[in-house]
Amino acid sequence: MDVFEDLESNVRSYCRTWDTVFARADGSRVYGEDGRGYVDFFSGAGALNYGHNNPLLLRPLLRYLESGAIVHSLDMKTQAKRRFLEAFRDLVLIPRELDYKVMFTGPTGTNAVEAALKLARKVTGRHHVLGFTNAFHGMTLGSLSVTGNSMKRRGAGIPLNNTSSIPYDGYLPPGTDDLIWLRQILADSGSGVDKPAAVIVETVQGEGGLRAARAAWLHDLSEVCRAHGVLLIVDDVQAGCGRTGTFFSFEPAGITPDIVCLSKSISGYGLPLALTLFRPELDLWQPGEHNGTFRGHNPAFVTATAALETYWADTGLQERVAARTAELREGLEEIAGWSDGAQVRGRGLLAGIFYPDTRTAARIARQSFAAGLLVETSGPESEVIKVMPPLTISAEDLATGLDLLAGAATTATREASLAPSR
Ligand SMILES: Cc1ncc(COP(=O)(O)O)c(C=O)c1O
């Protein structure tokens, strides 16, 4: 009897594609209870940027837990929270000249997004929010209302309103200005479109097919929003914490969003933690107006502080990510070159290959697993193979993973050429 299939809800998903029982993990490797090893090009969907069981984060966590220090404390003052706030201020905010208040929401990405949407509406007194085609912001109702995927939206079971979806960078045919509609309706009081409270954007669409917005487009978006008093929310839940090469994914665009959502790798160790950051003038919350039992979990503060102190006090990690990014890009370009119409997408270590035949990426993911590589798909039709190794992966492990991916792509594309066309 398989207790997972017997007892666990039909909603389970990753365990269907990777049908093994995982037992151990170390850096960029995970192991099943049968002893099989896998190279990890998945990184807990972006929650494990510093790899599995990173000893530099584990040691302070074990010391903290063994010391009798407080573990659960809602949003009370604790020593662990003080150290985290100080490290976040000194290593993240000050060096980037960012002046943000830090709000601890419930511990998942969708909580950070819900808080951002609520705050934008409260501050502006407007109800409408604009999201982008193929966006993904989480599975609670507010986040779903600005998410593109129709299957996920249907799951809400109620109309998802007070939002509209507008074209992301590159969505419209080449040569078309994707922001033209936004510019026009905001400038025209007769447009019939209610002025939005906010626009919410991912700089790279992690779940929606790895489309990466150009820096110039993000800059234009920010300017349009600023000109019309519309708040700009950057959802950096997946693309943030170094994933695209800088701590915040919006840094190369030279913009300062009004509100930023962070989660996934902010704790550094795979422990749940989420933050919503916003300009101090926007901090109009009444005490307790948005709360939750698990806001700011002390073990997560400990590993988050260790991650910031270990990886963000100098430029070492960023330099390593830049080197791995170049190697990854080269490997992906080579694999993409084997299939007509395949295209490399993404930015930094959040990259992959789009295949015009929507069956190919799923086949590659399946073959990869059989060969000893964890890699998932992205996009509305799962048409993109998505590669997201730990930022700390060695050049050797990255090369091994790319070899496995190349082998899987060869087998999968051969399978596709033998399969009857649809
Ligand atoms: C950009 C983005 N926002 C929000 C979320 C939701 O995060 P969580 O699954 O922790 O609620 C995700 C999850 O993949 C995401 O990629």
From TrEMBL:
Its EC number is 2.6.1.76. One of its GO terms (biological process) is ectoine biosynthetic process. GO terms for molecular function: diaminobutyrate-2-oxoglutarate transaminase activity; diaminobutyrate-pyruvate transaminase activity; pyridoxal phosphate binding. Keywords: Aminotransferase, Pyridoxal phosphate, Transferase. Pathway: Amine and polyamine biosynthesis; ectoine biosynthesis; L-ectoine from L-aspartate 4-semialdehyde: step 1/3. It comes from the Bacteria. PROSITE patterns: AA_TRANSFER_CLASS_3 (PS00600). InterPro entries: Aminotrans_3 (IPR005814), Aminotrans_3_PPA_site (IPR049704), Dat (IPR004637), Ectoine_EctB (IPR012773), PyrdxlP-dep_Trfase (IPR015424), PyrdxlP-dep_Trfase_major (IPR015421), PyrdxlP-dep_Trfase_small (IPR015422). CDD domains: OAT_like. The keyword Ion transport does not apply. Its cofactor is pyridoxal 5'-phosphate. Belongs to the class-III pyridoxal-phosphate-dependent aminotransferase family. This is Diaminobutyrate--2-oxoglutarate transaminase. It comes from Arthrobacter pityocampae. The gene is ectB.
